[in-house]
Amino acid sequence: MSLLDLIAAADERGLAAAAVACLERCLPQPAQGPGPDPLRPLWAACAEPRLWPARLAEARAALDTLADPGAPAARVRDVLAAAPAERAGEGLRVWADACSVLALEVHLGHDTTAPAAPDPVARCRAGDPSGAGPLLAGEAARQTAILEMLAAMDEDAPATAGLRQIRDVSTEGRRILRAASARRGRVRS
After folding, report:
1. What is the pTM of this model?
2. Cystine design at 91: which of 9, 10, 84, 134 (Cβ 3.0–4.6 Å)?
3. Is residue 184's pLDDT more than 70?
4. How far is CA 173 from CA 56, 91, 127, 139, in A?
């Protein structure tokens, strides 16, 4: 299934977790120390909808305190500002879709290979990564894998089931983007 199909079919927990994972991969690797990850509060709210409004406010406040957020973090801040106040409804699906697009665009911006096909983000979302650079294609595959993992979770499983695994996949994607960004910076120097 394409990313578009997976997002259209995802339940609310899946939409929330996939969206937070996408945003997390757009941010620089967190610094060590207290409260290093501004999106951390949202992970608990992916499992528990009643926590969403308070945790969303915490994440917004934490993101606002980043000293030098950079362009991707500023875009994450804008998308987070548009997040629905409740973790429910069509607004959540629209927001998750916007998070997916943002993550793909950020990865496209860090690819050292120019895309060989027009509108590579749209192509990747439709399930055709041909002509996309390795970072963009990898991000599309990562989003697909996360949404498929979320869809495969048993409805009777605890709400937190699988979220740790999703975070691990997302964290690995974040490391890959950070390494590619650092490598690109060295090449430009």
Report:
1. 0.90
2. 84
3. no
4. 23, 26, 19, 7
